[in-house]
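Handoff note, outgoing to incoming analyst
You'll be picking up this chain. Sequence as last confirmed:
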Amino acid sequence: MNRSISATPPFLRPRERLMERGAEALTDSDLLAILLGVGVRGNSVIQLANSLFRRLKRDGLSQATLADLVEERGIGKTKASIVLAAVELGKRLFGEDKDVVTIDGAESAYQNVRDLAPLKKEHLVALYLNAKNQLIKRDTVSIGSLFSNMVYPRELFGPALELRAAGVIMAHNHPSGDPEPSPEDLRLTQRMEEAALLLGIDLLDHLIVGHKKWISLRQRKVLHCR
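Most recent structure output, in case you need it:
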């Protein structure tokens, strides 16, 4: 049955589902339907997207030309241009030639924060990871004394929620050069771990970086949840 998008229940419409559940919850055809915008007489935009995927397949869409797309009834040059622009943007942002950084333990985490060692002020940075432990983003949370500035959980985990990160690694440097954790470091770690549990985000580790040494509080068993 050919049902227009307006006759489709809201919870089945791609745009409404994206706004409610996020883009990750949508199928490839749903995402393509949002790009196409509207269907044609007799075919809803969802049916149009499904038909295009059946003809070109997923890999074929990434290699499609303007001429390939306009062969599909209901897709003119304007819609085809929108699809081609989205595909090209995806290639540039997340293409196979883009380096993917995987953090598979304390050592690889340290390699991504070792530049903190020579800094003269304390810097707290966060590594935000996806469910595959791939680095989404590195962010500086605080500069200066962590304790005089009072770092709050929202400053660490707010970006994690926005990025839909599955896990967070926090790291900070000791300008003194000695990475041994202070009582304040341990209290900060405990407070952040408690917040992570409430938010359903994994606090995977807390690294303290000195001049020639570094310490993982996960390895020290200060962190317990996972």
